Amino acid sequence: MNETFSAPIITDHFCRRGGMGGHPADQCSHDPNITVAPIYTISSPDDATALAQGKTVIKLGPCLFGLYPGAMAFKSQTEAKDFIGLKGYDPKKWRIFQLSGDYQLDVTEGVLNKTLQLSRDMTINDTQ
User: Fold this and answer.
1) Which pLDDT value is given to residue 94?
2) Could you read off the pLDDT of 18-35 as tens digits, one per residue?
3) Residues paired with residue 107 on neighbouring β-strands, in sequence order
4) Contact between residue 115 and residue 107 where contact means Cβ atoms under 8 Å apart
5) Among 93, 5, 102, 78, CA closest to 43
6) Which of 48, 62, 66, 72 could disulfide-pair with 121, CB 3.0 to 4.6 Å?
7) How does pLDDT run across 77-101, given as a tens digit for each residue?
8) Do 103 and 75 contact (CB within 8 A), yes or no?
């Protein structure tokens, strides 16, 4: 039996998974039924420099046979900023970034469940 898929199903799949490159929210802005919950993480200023130079920077999901559970993930910039403060980390040595995924789909128990790409340095846009 031949099965065919309509374009909206394929588009929906790629929008939710970020399969077409770029940022998922940008890809799905044409469909008001799809909402993407952003993911934030913290990383070094070196990653901000690499992003500014147009390099691809990733944060790892689970690897090393389960020894590394995945990069930390936060629901909001405020949550990431609070984490930095609570841990006593030097804010000059840590930046907040938005990742290329969806919090609902790509985060399990506060860590990434797959490898994702850093998409935006949010520290420079910090208005909170």
Assistant:
1) 96
2) 444 444 444 444 566 677
3) 112
4) no
5) 93
6) 48
7) 999 999 999 999 999 999 999 999 9
8) yes
